[in-house]
Amino acid sequence: MENNKCNHEKNNEKNNENENNNNKTLLQKSLKLGGVYVGWISTHYIASHLYTKICTPLSIKGFIASAFNTATPHCTALRWCVYQGANTITNMWIMVGLWVVSKVST
């Protein structure tokens, strides 16, 4: 009887330990995903503002220069960041929505 009690206590300790490890893993994954999300939002935001300042300035001179600036490597890179950032942010919201729906529906 006492041996069964010890085994039961050990099982409870293992279950608690596994639950704590699962919670830590979930927290770590959430922080990593949150970091990726913040990174893409920052990249998109900064690239959007830099593109308008550097590649398409708001002036007559900027209007004329924009025809040449759009082909430069730095403007192409900024445009890529804006486009990919928007797509990635949209896809992340879709994934969050799907995850919420899967949790609600089960």
In short:
The protein has helices at about 1-55, 60-70, 75-105.
In percent, how helical is the residue content? over 70%
Work out the helix count.
3
E-strand count: 0
Mean pLDDT reading: 83
Helix and strand sequence: HHH
Shape: elongated
CA-CA gap between termini: 40 Å
The profile of the biggest β sheet is: none
Which percent range describes the beta-strand content? under 5%
Helix-strand blueprint:
Blueprint lengths: L1 H54 L4 H10 L3 H33 L1
Helix pairs in contact: 1-3
What does this structure look like?
This protein has 106 residues and is an all-alpha fold. The protein has one domain (2-105). 92% of the residues lie in helices and 0% in strands. It has 3 helices and no strands. The protein has helices at residues 2-55, 60-69, 73-105. The model has no long low-confidence stretch (mean pLDDT 83).
